Amino acid sequence: MIATTSKVAYKEINEEGTMKTQRDKILYVVKSHCDRVENIFNGISLREISSLTGFDINAVSGRVNGLKKDGFLKTVEKRKCSITKRLVSPVIPINSDDENAELVKDSIYHMEDKIKLLLMIKGYKKIKFTSTLDGTRVLRVEYYKQIDVKDVHYCHLHGDLFLSEVSAWDDDCGEKYWYLVSEQ
């Protein structure tokens, strides 16, 4: 019974044009949110879209899935949602109207790939770039392993990013190291 009701509702909103209107508004909200460079990496969660548009979460989920299927949106690295505080897979536009933002994002990813390669040459494995909740890019090697100072210098000489070491003591694991990433 529920499946039939869902199919009827889907047909009705599709014929009324509600789906296209919701879809367009959601795409607009995602693009607007990701126009700022600091939001490119973090994307926007479904609950955040729901909050901004006023659409029910099930409508947002359906339209976002359609936009992903049609090549307008893609998911990025998981982060905590600002509304639910749970781990989510946020989305970003694939074809952003802001060409400069796309160029910045592509060039930063290219620079990060170069740093990964340089560290691999030096023998490091499991090199991971992530974004913090405030959008700061961070590099981690293996399970918070320290990178030798000479190797950090090597990355600065041959790469386009600057790595700033940060460390903290963990009672279970000992000293943990990660690196804040910025452009030189």
Please give the structural blueprint.
Layout: H1 2-16, H2 18-34, H3 37-40, H4 46-53, H5 57-69, E1 73-75, E2 79-80, E3 87-88, E4 91-93, H6 99-121, E5 127-131, E6 137-141, H7 149-158, E7 161-170, E8 174-183
Helix pairs in contact: 2-5, 4-5
Describe the protein's architecture and organization.
By secondary structure, the chain is α+β, with helices and mostly antiparallel strands. The chain folds into two domains: 2-97, Winged helix-like DNA-binding domain superfamily/Winged helix DNA-binding domain (Arc Repressor Mutant, subunit A, Orthogonal Bundle); 100-183. The protein has seven helices and eight strands; from the N terminus they run H-H-H-H-H-E-E-E-E-H-E-E-H-E-E. It has helices at 2-16, 18-34, 37-40, 46-53, 57-69, 99-121, 149-158; strands at 73-75, 79-80, 87-88, 91-93, 127-131, 137-141, 161-170, 174-183. The strands form three sheets. It has a four-stranded antiparallel beta sheet. Strand 7 (161-170) and strand 8 form a beta hairpin. The longest helix is centred in the middle third of the chain and has 23 residues, at 99-121.
